[in-house]
Amino acid sequence: MKEMLPADRRKLYPNFGSLVDAQEDLASVETIEQLIEKLKGSHPDYAELFDSGRGGNVTARSKSIEKHFQQLAVGVYKDVLSRQFQFGVFYGWVKLKEIEIQNLMWISECITQNMKSRIHEYTPVAY
After folding, report:
1. Which one, of 28, 31, 57, 105, lies nearest residue 119 by Cα?
2. Of 2, 4, 48, 112, which shows the fewest CB atoms inside 10 Å?
């Protein structure tokens, strides 16, 4: 398979979003590790996300990328509940109830599998 030139790689990236200014870095890096190090320096918002969800080795203090995104979603759904006169309130409420059901499923699976030490790893949803 032929390696792409950095100029050809630049054509593949979109021109919207929060990573637009990092397209030069994206096109010039050779490995994923180099890309992560460059993005951590220029985008501190993503630094915690890249550090904690890396390599699959999740410790007691760090969280997986999935957990980070789920907590971000909970924040958005809770924020939507404060808006009035729109249908997003119903969507946010339903999604928060869905996350609460996932939490109950997680707790019941932990009890069933005798993994009671991991029960506390649910996604907190407080209104």
Report:
1. 105
2. 2
d(CA 50, CA 62): 11
Residue with the bigger pLDDT between 122 and 24: it is: 122
- Burial (CB < 10 A; 0-12, 13-18, 19+), residue 9, is middle
Inter-axis angle of helices 44-52 and 32-42, nearest 10: 140
Weakest-pLDDT range from 10-14, 22-26, 66-70? 22-26
SS3 state at 84 = coil
Q: Which tokens in the block code for residue 106? A: 């997680």
> Residue-wise over 14-23: b if at least 16 C-beta within 10 A, else e?
eeeeeeeebb
Long-range contacts of 10-19 (CB under 8 A, 24+ apart): 18/43, 18/45, 19/43
